[in-house]
What does this fold into?
Amino acid sequence: MKKLIVALLLTVAHTAYPQHQDAAISQINQDVWVPFIEALGNADIEAYLAVHHPSAIRISLDRNGIFQQGEAYFGQLRNLFGKIRQSEGRQQIQFRFSERIFSDKVASEKGYYKYVYEAKSTAASPYAAKIIYGSFHVISQKDENGRWKILLDFDYTNQEQKYNVTEKEFLAAMPL
It folds into this structure.
C-alpha cells in the first residue's frame, strides 16, 4: 500500500509540474513576448516600454558592449522609435527559445530572434528588407502587480558578422 501511495504522489507531482510550467510560460508570453512583438511591429514606444522594468538594463555585445539602464535606455528607444515612425519603415520580430527557466518571480530565457526591417518604398526603390538574426538572454521579474517585466536584455546579432547566428539556429529553437 505504501508503494502505491508513493507512486501516486510521484505521478501527481510529475503531472502538476508541466502544467505549472505551461501556465508560467503562457503568462510570460502574455505579459512580455506578445506585447513586445506587437509594440515593435507598430513602432509603439509606450507599449514597448510597458513590458520593461523601470530599471531595465540593456547590454548589446555586438555594439562593443553598450550598457544602458533605465531612463537613459528608454530615451534612446524613444529616439529610435521616432525615427522609425518618421521614416515610415516597417519592422517585425520573431522569437524562438533554447532555454526557459523560471521561479515564481524571476525568469531566465535564452534564444534567437529574427528581426526584419523594410525601408519605405519609393518609385525608384521598392521595399528592401534587411534581415538580422540574433541571440538573446532576457531576465524578467514580476512586478508588484504580478506582471512579468524585462529586467535585463542581453543580445548580439549577425549584423556585423562577428557572431554567427544563422537562420538554421533560429529555426531549430522552440517557437513562442
Observations:
- Helices lie at 2-42, 45-50, 70-87, 167-172.
- The beta strands are 52-60, 66-69, 90-102, 106-118, 129-142, 148-157, 174-175.
- The domain at 2-175 is CATH 3.10.450.50 (Nuclear Transport Factor 2; Chain: A,).
- Residues 3-17 have pLDDT under 50 and may be disordered.
